[in-house]
Amino acid sequence: MTTACCPPESIEEMLVDHLSLSRDDPCYFNESVLCRSPYWQAQRQWASALVDYRIVAVETGNGLGKGFLIGGLVPWFLWTRMDSLVYICGPGQTQIGSVLFKEIRRAVQNCPYWKAGLFWIDPLFRQQARRQVLRQCPHGVRRGPGSPA
Fold it and tell me: What is the rounded CA–CA span in Å between residue 29 and residue 54?
């Protein structure tokens, strides 16, 4: 998906539609909003569990794509829920900074809507909001000085 071939209104309307459809479907968000490769079967199960349960624990091994999954789930949750907050925990700062935030940054920076300057937006998905001009969200997540994220 490229942003050069679409008028800005079309991109904004597509984004609002994609975000509305992906509120309860993180796999759809990963493919349609972030334009990343699809999750594999276990990743889809883990992602779908977040829709139904407040806390999800996954027992896994090495190299199963947990970082890639989290790289898509964090923006999904933040961009589809008003005033949301995501806590990220890990075994150490190195794991969090070198793996998780790198995956999140990679997912967001490759998102065509991010490149078009449409995030952070106000994610209120009322029917009348479809025609409303997307506004910059005043509560975007900001990095502190010196943060590697």
Answer: 19
